[in-house]
């Protein structure tokens, strides 16, 4: 009996994790073809920052070498972006004209950097930070240039800034928010982070907006001009102002896209049940996730349905934040800002670089923000995600899991008990 044909567009972490799960539970169901736009096998994109910082090499972050694809009989097209999906003929066509027929199609095209529409964004020396090519270009620029400006004080921007500083560049981060990681930290933790990074030689323009990038006679960027009139010298500008789901191909194929390719709880597209989507390109219940844990949760569910087991539902994910900068430890999850109907338990030691904030609503933990000591972050996240009643843990909660041993919280009621 002929195998079914599975084609995957995209060769990143979410898509390949789906294939790993599928091969584990249904190794002989499909002939698999993969198209990857980059000329590299699957690698750990979240470790690009340590590569930029000189702490790891590109070879060390490869997750699935070429031998893995060969071992599983996967036909791999590297450096070939798919340009067309024909849903009637059930084929895909790549940039080099090669085609592949499918019975099931998995779209895992990820996301692309958001580049603010400012004058000068097309100058030489202006880069985004998304893949191996961007990382290599930044490493090369650091060898021959002195001044860098990173636009965006989020996770990716700070990791880029730290890496460039470690390679000897003078780096200024321009951030629209009033404090760093303003979507992941509260103002107190953001201020502690800023102080730590300034000690490493980074500079910051907070609450600042980029007006234009200015070039020299050769067409290379030389400065960043802010809305308030300040000019920052810049031989290199890194755009790290966010990401947007890569949906152009899906839109051309007529798939419904709203903040990503719209999928249901089985990760099937709502437009075409033969087509699935996972990862940063997918929008589930109105949310497109940009962190790796939700993408792997999607992969597990999607694989069960590709395997025709008909089990598993993806209900959405709770997420937490960590920064990949050596020596800086922070963790946040849930409603860490708090608000009406909540109360916060605080421990603050600015001189020691320590800050803990636990946000409670009734008898449950709903938010956590840690800086300096994050050892209990995963435990707090488990309490938050499972919605457990704290009970006798409440008085000891600030002191972490070890202090709470022997005073186990009551489990959340089951649905039968709740009924």
From TrEMBL:
Keywords (A to Z) from UniProt: FAD, Flavoprotein
Domain FAD/NAD(P)-binding span(s) in chain numbering: 5-286
Pfam families tied to this protein: Pyr_redox_2 (PF07992), Rubredoxin_C (PF18267)
GO molecular function per UniProt: oxidoreductase activity
Cofactor: FAD
Domain NADH-rubredoxin oxidoreductase C-terminal: 321-387
Family, as annotated: Belongs to the FAD-dependent oxidoreductase family.
Name of the protein in question: NAD(P)/FAD-dependent oxidoreductase
Organism in which the protein naturally occurs: Ideonella dechloratans
């Amino acid at each position: 009996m002929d195998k079914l044909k599975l084609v995957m567009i995209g060769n990143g972490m979410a898509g390949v994790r789906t294939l790993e799960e599928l091969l584990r539970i249904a190794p002989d169901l499909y002939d698999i073809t993969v198209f990857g736009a980059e000329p590299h096998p699957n690698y750990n994109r979240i470790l690009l920052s340590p590569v930029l910082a000189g702490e790891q090499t590109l070879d060390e972050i490869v997750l699935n070498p070429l031998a893995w694809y060969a071992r599983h009989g996967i036909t791999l097209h590297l450096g070939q972006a798919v340009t067309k999906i024909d849903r009637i003929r059930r084929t895909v066509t790549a940039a080099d004209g090669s085609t592949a027929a499918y019975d099931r199609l998995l779209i895992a095209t990820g996301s692309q950097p958001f580049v603010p529409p400012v004058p000068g964004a097309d100058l030489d020396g202006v880069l985004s930070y998304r893949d191996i090519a961007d990382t290599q270009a930044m490493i090369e620029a650091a060898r021959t240039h002195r001044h860098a400006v990173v636009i965006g004080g989020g996770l990716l921007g700070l990791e880029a800034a730290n890496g460039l500083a470690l390679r000897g560049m003078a780096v200024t981060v321009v951030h629209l928010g009033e404090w760093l990681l303003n979507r992941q930290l509260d103002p107190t933790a953001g201020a502690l982070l800023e102080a730590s990074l300034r000690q490493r030689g980074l500079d910051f323009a907070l609450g600042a907006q980029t007006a234009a990038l200015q070039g020299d006679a050769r067409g290379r960027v030389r400065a960043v001009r802010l809305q308030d009139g300040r000019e920052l010298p810049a031989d290199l500008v890194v755009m790290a102002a966010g990401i947007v789901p890569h949906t152009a191909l899906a839109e051309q194929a007529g798939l419904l896209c709203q903040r990503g390719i719209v999928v249901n709880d089985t990760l099937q597209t709502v437009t075409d049940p033969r087509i699935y989507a996972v990862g940063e390109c997918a929008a589930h219940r109105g949310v497109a996730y940009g962190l790796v844990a939700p993408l792997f949760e999607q992969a597990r569910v999607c694989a069960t349905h590709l395997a025709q087991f008909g089990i598993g539902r993806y209900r959405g994910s709770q997420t937490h934040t960590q920064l990949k900068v050596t020596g800086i430890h922070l963790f946040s999850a849930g409603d860490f800002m708090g608000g009406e109907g909540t109360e916060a338990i605080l421990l603050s030691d600015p001189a020691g670089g320590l800050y803990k904030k636990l946000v409670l609503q009734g008898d449950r933990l709903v938010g956590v923000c840690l800086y300096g000591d994050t050892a209990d972050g995963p435990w707090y996240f488990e309490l938050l995600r499972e919605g457990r009643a704290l009970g006798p843990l409440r008085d000891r909660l600030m002191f972490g899991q070890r202090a709470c041993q022997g005073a186990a919280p009551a489990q959340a009621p089951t649905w039968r008990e709740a009924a």
